[in-house]
Specification:
The chain has 2 domains: 7-223, P-loop containing nucleotide triphosphate hydrolases (Rossmann fold, 3-Layer(aba) Sandwich), CATH 3.40.50.300; 257-330, no CATH class. 26% of the residues lie in helices and 22% in strands. It has helices spanning 53-60, 83-93, 109-119, 124-137, 153-165, 183-200, 211-216, 259-264, and strands at 7-18, 27-38, 42-46, 68-73, 76-77, 94-97, 171-175, 203-207, 219-224, 227-232, 246-247, 271-272, 276-277, 280-281, 284-285. Helix 3 crosses helix 4 and helix 3 packs parallel to helix 5. The protein binds adenosine-5'-triphosphate (ATP) and magnesium ion.
Length: 330
């Protein structure tokens, strides 16, 4: 496959299975993901809880080896690198911001932030100065001597963001980066991300439930049960994903319909394809053969949002007004 020069991260056919000996067996978390991120691009990944967002981020960042598929970073196949080679490539290019801050508990905030530079052999004094500047920029400069346990959740997350920025990464992979922050800090962090993106061309892949985060990104990919089912354009308002939705069909020909589209075509069943033209599929339901779903298997719209637990009450809307996740059928 030919990959453009300006592609910073490329993944092909990613599958990930969490193996388990438990009764409920293995979990297939990713089912054939393809994704390409260009230098300086900002892409959001949205989708309900358990759809595979964190698994995807870990596989893309080389923190976890996918069960199958390839990931290339700056044109180099990460899935073929081992140990130190992988660490070196990652350190030069990517930073992570996790759902929880993942700070080292025995180090104060300043040392946590400076730590990645120490690994690169930079003088401690220089690393500390840069760390302090970043902490100041993120509004936690005066907490630099605090241990993680002495900081609030929001302060810890800001320290983690400073640590991610200190290596001047080309790509930031962030899992719900503003989840633990209050709305004002959250907006400040977004403004910082936005300026890093616009002024310094830092690329972002952000997992989010937050509509402001998603709208800062050039495009959003909607993940469901380990597959990308749709893509959305610029300034997506994730409270109504269906407005900008483009459906995605992967290389294996699999198309997974978002629940609201499935509902619109009358639910699951058997379909015939009478005409078959390029870029056009006409589906015709085979009514006489319609599989009657008995009451125990009848699908209904879920009453709560699996992602943010929003209560839909009697409403028939198919996208969560709070977090924008698609409403599942259960
Ligand atoms: N370590 C693990 N062992 C077994 N199964 C796992 C493990 N981690 C995740 N899973 C399962 O894999 C699937 C995808 O999980 P993942 O954490 O990637 O979802 P997510 O989209 O990040 O969810 P959330 O929005 O709640 O963070 C889920 O079914 C989850 O239960
Ligand atoms: Mg997650």
């Amino acid at each position: 496959m030919v990959i453009d020069d300006d592609v910073i991260l490329n993944a092909d056919g990613l599958f990930h299975i969490y193996e388990s000996k438990a009764e409920d067996g293995n979990v297939v978390a990713l089912r054939g993901i393809h994704v390409s991120i260009k230098e300086g691009e900002a892409v959001a990944v949205v989708g309900p809880s358990g759809s595979g967002k964190s698994t995807l981020l870990k596989c893309l960042g080389g923190l976890m080896k996918p069960s199958a598929g390839n990931v290339s970073l700056s044109g180099k196949r990460m899935t073929r690198l081992t140990g130190q080679e992988l660490v070196n490539l990652r350190q030069k290019t990517i930073s992570f911001i996790f759902q929880d801050s993942n700070l080292l508990p025995h180090m104060n905030a300043l040392d946590n932030v400076a730590q990645p530079l120490r690994h690169q052999g930079i003088l401690p004094k220089v690393a500390r100065l840069k760390a302090q500047n970043l902490l100041n920029k993120l509004g936690v400069g005066e907490r630099s001597k605090g241990l993680p346990e002495q900081l609030s959740g929001g302060e810890q997350q800001r320290v983690a963001i400073a640590r991610a920025l200190i290596t001047d990464p080309k790509l930031i992979l962030a899992d719900e980066p503003t989840g633990a922050l209050d709305p004002i800090t959250s907006r400040e962090v977004l403004e910082l991300f936005s300026s890093l993106n616009e002024e310094f061309g830092v690329a972002f892949l952000l997992v989010t439930h937050n509509r402001e985060v998603a709208s800062f990104c050039g495009r959003s990919l909607e993940l469901r049960e380990g597959r990308f089912i749709a893509q959305h354009g610029t300034n997506v308002d994730i409270s109504d994903l269906s407005e900008t939705r483009e459906l995605l069909i992967d290389d294996s020909g699999t198309v997974t319909l978002p629940p609201d589209v499935l509902l619109k075509i009358g639910g699951p069943g058997r379909f015939e394809i009478p005409v078959n033209e390029k870029d056009l599929i006409h589906l015709e339901r085979v009514e006489e053969d319609k599989v009657e779903l008995n009451s125990s298997t009848k699908l209904v719209l879920s009453s709560t949002c699996p992602a943010c637990l929003h209560d839909y009450s009697d409403s028939m809307i198919q996208l969560c007004p709070k977090c924008g996740s698609t409403r599942p059928m259960i």
